[in-house]
UniProtKB/TrEMBL annotation:
GO terms for biological process: translation. Allows the formation of correctly charged Asn-tRNA(Asn) or Gln-tRNA(Gln) through the transamidation of misacylated Asp-tRNA(Asn) or Glu-tRNA(Gln) in organisms which lack either or both of asparaginyl-tRNA or glutaminyl-tRNA synthetases. The reaction takes place in the presence of glutamine and ATP through an activated phospho-Asp-tRNA(Asn) or phospho-Glu-tRNA(Gln). This is Aspartyl/glutamyl-tRNA(Asn/Gln) amidotransferase subunit B. Its EC number is 6.3.5.-. One of its GO terms (molecular function) is ATP binding. InterPro entries: Asn/Gln-tRNA_amidoTrfase_suB/E, Asn/Gln-tRNA_Trfase_suB/E_cat, Asn/Gln_amidotransferase, Asn/Gln_tRNA_amidoTrase-B-like, GatB, GatB_C_1, GatB_Yqey_C_2, Gln-tRNA_amidoTrfase_suB_CS. PANTHER family: GLUTAMYL-TRNA GLN AMIDOTRANSFERASE SUBUNIT B MITOCHONDRIAL AND PROKARYOTIC PET112-RELATED (PTHR11659). It catalyses: L-aspartyl-tRNA(Asn) + L-glutamine + ATP + H2O = L-asparaginyl-tRNA(Asn) + L-glutamate + ADP + phosphate + 2 H(+); L-glutamyl-tRNA(Gln) + L-glutamine + ATP + H2O = L-glutaminyl-tRNA(Gln) + L-glutamate + ADP + phosphate + H(+). It is an enzyme of class 6 (ligase). Heterotrimer of A, B and C subunits. Belongs to the GatB/GatE family. GatB subfamily. Coiled coil: none annotated.
Length: 479
């Protein structure tokens, strides 16, 4: 019996605001525990929340970026549950009147383009962070994150494989980042997801019992968690024990490599939703919607098509660039300096990306600015230094603030393009390799590469390789 996998995601993304959703506390990450708190976000008696207008603006922008209908009248609700990371013992969220509904994201799969429907996008406040002490019998609570504004993007169960779920999550992350809605720093938890997964027999229309995997903040861990839960459910169906699959929330334990039950999955009535009495209903004006559309930056799919068309770079190269917003911004800045697109692409996807991975930094933290890299590549384009010499200069630029021209001069890396210098060296190499020359005369033109190598060796790599190749062929053909 064949089974298919059904997956839906609930993606939580922190919004790119300076202050929290209902107070003026900073949303800055990495502050001292409980430094970014006040009586409002700590839920002290007598305090009243005031809606941050920028949260509404960004939520509307997110909705327009994924083709949602904007509900111009919506409200906040209380979602009641008791947990230590919620100081009020309830979360202000949205229930029956979310800000956005009925969107769509297209993803590219092995079987072609698949539509993933967005059920809703709603606004809510984030909860705090619990720090479980490994060797002590207590838990610490950091409330800095309490009240940080979130949007939750809920999909329909439209994904049919783990690969599709990962592709969707990546695609959505790129859209939110490019639109300026979230910084999408997964390592800081500013975008994370809950995954709902179930199995059913191929050909069935009925959706079976689903399991929710909670709070996953990396593509790799999402893949591992879904694979393990898929395997667990498939085994239960195969051995006739599907009754053991219950609607529950499980967490992914990466250390143990398995999903672990947390609690039974709550229904809406378990949260006792009711309209938030301290926050007035939200009216989204036509002006807010028009502004979201007018200020929408170039989104990933449009950027991919433009880069391929405008710069003639391959689809594979474009996908690597666009998947990393700081990297593609660096590329376009380098082009704006006057660099030839193919040369820029080769260097960024080669040496620059290598250093970024080694140092675990982003392109906007890279020591060599686009303007400075352009100066180096201009020396290559103008045949003042060889590509080999440029690699040496590049490594030196990583260690110092010196200009590339200064490094070239200090290390004597200037390329030799003088006919008077190169010509006698070519003559000498031809003279010293008569058997190779004979092979060339017999039609084995590939030996030319060996002779070029000998000439470059004699000039310590400083000779202009293009000039060497042209002069060498000319001399060999005249013999």
């Amino acid at each position: 019996m064949s089974y298919e996998t059904i997956i839906g995601l609930e993606v939580h993304s922190e919004l790119k605001t300076k202050t929290k959703i209902f107070c003026n506390c900073s949303t800055k990450f990495g502050e001292e525990p409980n430094a970014n708190t006040c009586p409002i976000c700590l839920g002290l008696p007598g305090t009243l929340p005031v809606m941050n207008e920028e949260v509404v603006n960004l939520a509307v922008k997110a909705g327009k970026a994924v083709g949602c209908r904007i509900n111009q009248l919506n409200k906040m609700d209380r979602k009641n549950y008791f947990y230590p990371d919620l100081p009020k013992a309830y979360q202000i969220s949205q229930f029956d009147l979310p800000i956005c509904e009925e969107g769509l994201i297209k993803i590219e799969t092995e079987d072609g383009i698949r539509d993933v429907r967005i059920n809703r996008i709603h606004m809510e406040e984030d909860a705090g962070k619990l720090v479980h002490m490994e060797y002590e019998p207590y838990t610490l609570i950091d409330y800095n994150r309490v009240g940080v504004p979130l949007i939750e993007i809920v999909t329909e169960p439209d994904m049919r494989s783990i690969e599709e779920a990962i592709t969707f999550f990546k695609t959505l992350k790129d859209i939110l980042e490019y639109a300026g809605i979230s910084d999408c720093k997964m390592e800081q938890g500013s975008i994370r997801c809950d995954a709902n997964i179930s199995m059913r027999k191929v050909g069935d229309d009925k959706l079976n019992t689903r399991v929710e995997l909670k709070n996953i903040n990396s593509f790799k861990e999402l893949q591992k968690a879904l694979e393990k839960e898929q395997k667990r459910q498939l085994e239960l169906y195969t051995y006739g024990e599907e009754h053991k699959i219950v609607q529950e929330t499980r967490r992914w334990d990466s250390g143990k490599g398995k999903t672990i039950p947390m609690r039974s999955k709550e229904e809406a009535h378990d949260y006792r939703y009711f309209p938030e009495p301290d926050v007035i209903p939200i009216i989204v004006s036509d002006e807010i919607i028009a502004n979201a559309e007018a200020t929408m930056p170039e989104l990933p799919e449009i950027k991919k098509a433009r880069l391929m068309s405008e710069y003639g770079i391959s689809k594979k190269e474009v996908e690597v660039l666009v998947a990393d917003k700081p990297l593609v911004d660096y590329f376009e800045e380098l082009i704006a300096c006057g660099c030839e697109s193919k040369l820029a692409c080769n260097w960024i996807l080669g040496d620059v990306l290598r250093v970024l991975k080694e140092e675990k930094i982003t392109a906007n933290e890279f020591a060599i600015t686009p303007a400075k890299l352009f100066k180096l590549l201009a020396l290559v384009s103008e045949s003042k230094i060889s590509t080999t010499a440029a690699k040496t200069v590049f490594e030196e630029m990583l260690k110092s603030w010196k200009e590339p021209e200064e490094i070239v001069k200090e290390k004597g890396l200037s390329q030799i393009s003088s006919l008077d210098t190169i010509d006698p060296i070519i003559e000498e190499v031809i003279k010293n390799n008569p058997s190779v020359v004979e092979q060339y005369k017999e039609g084995k033109t590939q030996v030319q590469g060996f002779l070029v190598g000998q000439i470059m060796k004699a000039t310590k790599g400083k000779a202009n390789p293009k000039m060497v190749a042209e002069l060498l062929v000319e001399k060999l053909n005249s013999i």
